[in-house]
Amino acid sequence: MKYLCLVYANEQELHSSPDSPHDSECHAYAQRVQESGRMLAAEALQSVQTATTVRMRGGKLAITDGPFAETKEQLAGFYLIEARDLNEAIQLAGHIPAARVGSVEVRPVRQLDVDPAAQS
């Protein structure tokens, strides 16, 4: 089963806390998960200041610079993993280096029922 591990952290603390992970540690973690065959994708995101939020309301597109909501923690990156079950996904997420200074939300990926013939 696929799980998305969303990494949230306060951007200032993510890079300045004594517990902050260094890029080399994050790369090493990703490499270990990749070698185990459970890594499907992983990316770090640029600063929340580069975000653009898109909404469609009443048929009109609204674009806002910045994140959707003001929060103490921002989405910093993600890991898309393959795991036997939620317990294994939680164990993998617990070792994500940024979990020491932020949080990791683990969510099962929902398969969309899309009929390829209906797309024509």
UniProtKB/TrEMBL annotation:
Signal sequence segment: none
InterPro entries noted in UniProt: Dimeric_a/b-barrel, YCII
Domain YCII-related: residue ranges: 1-111
Protein family according to the UniProt entry: Belongs to the YciI family.
PANTHER family: BLL7171 PROTEIN, BLL7171 PROTEIN-RELATED
Record protein name field: Dehydrogenase
Source organism of the structure: Ectopseudomonas composti
